[in-house]
Specification:
This protein is mainly α. It is built from 3 helices and 4 strands.
């Protein structure tokens, strides 16, 4: 993650510079933007930034570190799980009177909630 954070900024600055050099903004568009105090600039804003430490998520039975920009939450339970008192779902994916893809998707979501200790109404 740190590698991508460090080098994505340079690419973004180059992209902004190329957009700023685009002459497609018409005079009427410039006048409209001026009403809101917005003006086109050909140079990017320079500011100081810092890279923050990666957060560590703590759970009831484990902690989870960042790996490739995400947390692996398999097998962890929330320390204070919420209760989902009720919910509703409309599945527009069914065809021919059978169960649709949405049913499998919802089943996966509910199984994931249960595995993390979230209390469901059934």
């Amino acid at each position: 993650l740190k590698f991508y954070d460090e080098f994505s900024g340079t690419d973004l600055v180059r992209k902004v510079e190329s957009l700023a050099n685009n002459r497609r903004v018409s005079e009427s568009q410039r006048n409209f933007l001026k009403l809101f105090g917005i003006a086109k600039s050909v140079s990017p804003v320079s500011l100081k930034a810092r890279v923050l430490e990666e957060p560590i998520l703590k759970f009831k039975n484990a902690s989870s570190d960042i790996s490739d920009g995400s947390w692996n939450l398999r097998g962890v339970k929330f320390d204070s799980p919420a209760t989902m008192a009720s919910f509703g779902v409309i599945d527009f994916t069914s065809s021919g009177g059978g169960l649709g893809r949405g049913t499998k998707f919802l089943s996966n979501i509910l199984n994931s909630c249960r595995s993390h200790g979230i209390h469901l109404p059934f």
